What does this fold into?
Amino acid sequence: MTWFEFMMRNRAEVLERLIEHIGLVGASMAISLLIGLPLGVALVPRAKLQRWVVGAANVVQTIPSLALFGFLIPVPWIGGVGASTAIVALSLYAVLPILRNTCTGIAEVDPAIVESARGMGMTPRQVLWQVQLPLAAPVLLAGIRVATAICIGVTTIAAAIGAGGLGVFIFRGLAMVNNQVILAGAIPAAALAIAADSGLGFFQRSIAKR
Amino acid sequence: MSSLSDGFQVGYAVEFRATTFRLPSGVALISNLNLSIAQGETLILLGRSGSGKTTTLKLINRLLQPTEGEIFVAGRPSASWDPFQLRRGIGYVIQDAGLFPHWTVERNVGLVPHLERWPEAKIQDRVREMLSLVGLPPDEFATRRPSGLSGGQKQRVGVARALAADPPILLMDEPFGALDPITRADLQREFRALAQRLHKTIVFVTHDVREALFLGTRIALLDQGRLVGVYAPAEFLKASEPEIHAFVASLDSGAASEGVA
It folds into this structure.
């Protein structure tokens, strides 16, 4: 039986795991965007606090993913085995690149432009939405792109704590010593990562061109 | 609702009264400044780098707040103005023009009218009028982006943007400083004609004496945050203060090295 035949025979479960995978990535990205973007914006004028927060996010980033899942399982409310623990861990990973790029993206906007925006009588909110964020958009998107790639990768490991996703095939294949089963998870996960990255990359370039 | 133009029966457009501005470290960038700027005049703030010219300018539109003393704009303490309202009534032009690179020329020029919620048709008419005023044919330039403009064209757009909402006061921070000499001379000539026609109160920062003498109705010389004096251009060349001698000397050497007067 070829790998392709195996995939066709099990397409219902492959599809189900793929959708689970996308759901985990989508939920974690949504949470990290909701935290990272406003936090990044709020930290721009607070350089000292920004160093601390980005430093803390950096520490989280260096924790191996399987270990982070392990740490979270005994935590009450958010912990336990399953998708919610995985989403918390994934969000913690994804928030750093988003946060960092929001801060640097806004800080790198030409100060002369921001000064003239203020001097023309724009309110801080107008300066943020009409000047700083649009000009920081390419850098911001680069952060989202990195976060998405990390999320899709780490989600394959989330299967180890019962969160589902394409990693289920990989762990099952490892246990069964069956390459076809491993590849049933590994190839779609890799394809998903490449597709998401090139899609966001295309979007990023089209924004930068404007 | 009161606007900046209403306050002008009172007399001076801008008045500094014993104004001091200190950095949080305690260093004074402006010390005890007393200066009155009349309506319709072009007052030059002249001085070398670090003399406090730009600080003085930013105190007028409240980008900076004085540590001591007061500033009156259109007869009212500037602290009593809503800062955004105040700034929309004061045109502001800076050295690099500070145009928004993600907006077209049209949108850049229409910025303050948009903030003031003018009707769209009125904004469009005004933008075209302003572009023509600064010598940029609207049909050719309205839809361009700042990246497609030369330095001189950017500065023209900067002036058009500052004038768009017809502010009674115009602040200009070395607007022609980064241009090549020929473009600079062109813009200075055109700007002088424009200033005489529009009858705005203009506060113009420069370190170039020739520019100061050419454009100013009066020249205020600043040195290390202190006002040395205020002079008509003719007086300036004859004045005896050593600070002025340094500048007049720079005028001579500048003229000699560039070979033009």
User: Anything to note?
Assistant: The interface with chain B takes residues 110, 112-113, 115-123, 126, 130-131, 134-135, 210 of chain A (CB under 8 Å). Chain A has a mean pLDDT of 89. Residues 3-209 of chain A form a domain with the MetI-like fold fold (CATH 1.10.3720.10).
